[in-house]
Each structure stands twice: as structure tokens, then as C-alpha cells.
Design brief:
heterodimer, A: about 270 residues, 4-stranded antiparallel sheet, about 35% helix, B: 9 helices
Chain lengths: ~270, ~260
Amino acid sequence: MSESSPPIRLQNVTVRLGGRVILEDLSLDIPAGKVTAVMGPSGAGKTTVMRLVTGQLKPESGQVWLGEQRVDQMNGKALNRLRRGIGVLLQNGALFTDLTCFDNVALPLREHTGLPETLIRRLVLLKLQAVGLRGAADLYPRELSGGMNRRVAMARAMALDPGLMLYDEPFAGLDPISLGVSLRLIREITQALHTTSVVITHDVGEINKLADYCCIISDRRVVAEGPPSSLDQSDHPLVRQFLDGQPDGPVAFHYPAPTMNEDMLSVGERQ
Amino acid sequence: MNGQASGLDRLLNPIRRLGNAGLFLVTAFSRMRFSRLQLLETLRQVYFAGVRSLVIIVTGGFFVGLVLTLQTYDTLSRFGAADAVSTVLALSLFRELGPVLTTLLFAGRAGTSITAEIGLMRATEQLDAMDLMAIDPMERIVQPRLLAGVLAVPALVLVFNVCAILGGLVFAVFLMGADPIAFWGNMQATVELWRDFGHGMLKAVAFGFLASWLAVYYGWTARPTSEGVALATTQTVIATAITVLILDFVLSAFML
């Protein structure tokens, strides 16, 4: 695979935030040029993986590789150069509310390319056309629905034709139509731009349609990985609980607490 | 022991915050870049912070001039020195009231808006998005707002002073029947361009810088919650009011 759509490799990565271990000795290989779904229960560290790849977070130990580049050792200008080749769709889109959809998509082009405005206009309209929102170019994000906002953010993320696209929970809170559109777009972008795509999600139902490769993170490490069909065969209790949506299992439903009896009898003391 | 620790913490907190605000400013200066895009964004921020503050500045200025003249005219008349009212008005405005009151109004109108905007940008991940697009938020968000305050406050002080003098003129000449030639003549004869007006404008630049620095700093460090943003806007007004009054005394002491 070419360097423009790089593979990602995390080797024995440990991340600690505020004294709490988020990832411990985690190793993960994400193949180039494919859609990989990173799944797991809430708080398992999926977004932390994304932040490691973009260099927003440095691991306490271990290595993070993007193609031939060691991300965890990068700083300042090197990180900025790296990020120009990465498109990121954040959970709520994170569009700039004081700019129109057109200006949101044009921003990375204006900042990084030095292209004439006429060419930028054409590129922006093409990107907006790809997500079906060319007609909304002059609207502000507040005038669009949540799903549309995310599609504009998707157009902005691919403005510089990045080799790597990262999607953080792209389906959260979407209606079935918007979900289907987003799913199709992710596949189309990956194929058309020959990118490596990483989708952070816990939407188990869509995995077969979306991903070529999956990994499930739980209990601070990767508990299963492989093609989506292979995960169905897994006997791992964490994988089973996650895929079958069981309320209790290795991941407890209840937050740690004293026993019900202790709590009920000590109501007066608590006040 | 815990009580002692929290007491010490409370004592050290303002010093810690001051140090952090200083570091923030050094970082902002070290990352300053002057491109066409930056210039356009700075002008846009001057519009948001300056032009949109005009209503409160014009109204505030006019009524401050009106009430200041009302009080001084009455007092000076008792000593037969009513003609000096324009001198007192101009000197108070140029040296102290213009820069101080304008900055306080600016902090309430534009400072809080800057803080809330940056705080909400942090809460809605817009600053993260910028970082991820290899666009430095310090350069793109902080720098234009910082410079906008430095440019807007002196201009607003001029507007405030003009409106306040007009307010004074309306009261003294049109309501109390003072001689307009004496009103303008006394003012021109006693006010010195550099010592009175120039020093006041220097203060305006310093206050504008201070107000915008605190506004962007509190926005930048706001907790990314609705409660955090609300607290940050309040802190902006309180911190600006206190530091401007302290700085005003220090600058006045050096300038006299």
C-alpha cells in the first residue's frame, strides 16, 4: 500500500490520564486502505486510540506508528505536517459556528494550500457535492440538522484529500436515513480517495456493512480483532457481552457501590 | 491539616492563575503571525468588539458627561467658578474617567462575549478541530481577539470622551445658559495635548490590552461545561474591573 494511505501500528501502548490507566500494554495493527471499526463499551479508551494516532496524546510507554512515522515522538511542526494528511470527524462535527458551510470546508484549503480563490471555490463545491450539501453552501451550521452538520464536517475533513480518515462516533444520535447516508459516504470516501479509514463506534448492527476489519477494546486492551464475520464466532465473554448487548457480564451494569442493605440503612448518616 | 492546606491553596491560587495567565500571554506572543488572513480576522474582531460596543459607549459617555457637569457645575457655582466646569470635565474625562469607564463597559459588553465564545468553542470541540486541521488556535482565535482589544478600546475611549463632552455641553450651555465661548475656550486653554490627552490614550492602550488578555485567557481556560463558561465570563468582568482600577492608580502615579 502506498504511503498516502498509511497503516497504523500501536505497540505495547500504555496511557494513564489523571492517575487512571486508560490503555495498558495495548497492541493494535490497523491495515492500510481499508475501513477498520474500533469498537468497545463507553469509556473503554476508543477515543484515546484516536488521540494517540493524531498526536494529541502521548503514551506513557509504547510506540505509535503511522506508516513509517513515529507519532509519539513528534512535536510542533512535525505534528502539524502529519495532521495535514489526516482528516478527523469529531463526534458532534465541531463546525465553526461563525462560518458558513462553504467557509468551514474552505478553511483548511485557505490555510494550507495557497490556491487561488476561484480554484478553492470549485474544490469546496465538489466536496460539498460529495456529501450532498452543495445547496447548503451558504447556510450556517445552526441552520442545518445534526446529521447534515456531520456531513459538512466530513466534507471539511476530506478537504485536503487526506490519506487517513478518522471518524469518532459518526453514527451517534442519527436517524436511520442519516445513518445509512453516513455509512455509504464513509465507504465511498475510502474507495474514491484510497484512504485508510478508522471508525470509532459502538454501533454493532452496522459493522458488517461498514468495516473490512474490526477490533474490540475493553478492559484497557484489545480483546478481539479480525474481519467482522470472525467476531461473531468469538467465545470471549467481553466480546459476547458487547455483541449481544447483555446488561451484565465482565462489564458491570452497576457502578461500584456498597451493598443495597448498607446504603438503605445509612440514609440518615449520608445526610 | 486539611483546612490549612485549603487555606494555603486559596492564598496561592490567584498567584498561580497570574503565572498561568502570564505563560498564556508569552505563548500567544511567541506564536503570532501576520498574514492577510490574520489581518482580515483581526478587522472582523475589531468590528465585533468595537463597533458593536458603540451603543453602550455612546449612551454611557453622554450620561456620564451630563451627570459630571451637573455635579461640578453646582459645586463650582458656590465658589463663583462655574466657568471652570469644562476644564474639570475635560481633565477628569481625558485623564481618568474616559479610559477607566470605557474599559469597564468594554469588559462587560465585549470581554464577556469573547470569553463565552472561546469557552464554547472549547466545549464544542471547535478548538480541537482546529488543532487537528494543523491550524494553530492561538494564532487563529487568540491573536485577532487580543489585537482587536488593543485597537478597539482607544477608539472607544475617543468616542466616549466626545459623547461625554457633548453631554457636558448640553447641560452647561443649553440647560444652565453658560457661555459657549467660555466653555470651549477654557477647555482649550487648560488641557495639554500630551500631559492630559496623550497620557489618557496611553492608559487606554494598556487597559485595552489588559481587558482583551483577560477575556481570551478566561475563555481559553474555561471548563468545557455550561457552568464553566458562565463562571469564566463572571471572572472576566471581576478580574478586569479590579486589575484596571489597580493599574490606573499605578499608571497615574507614574504619569503625574
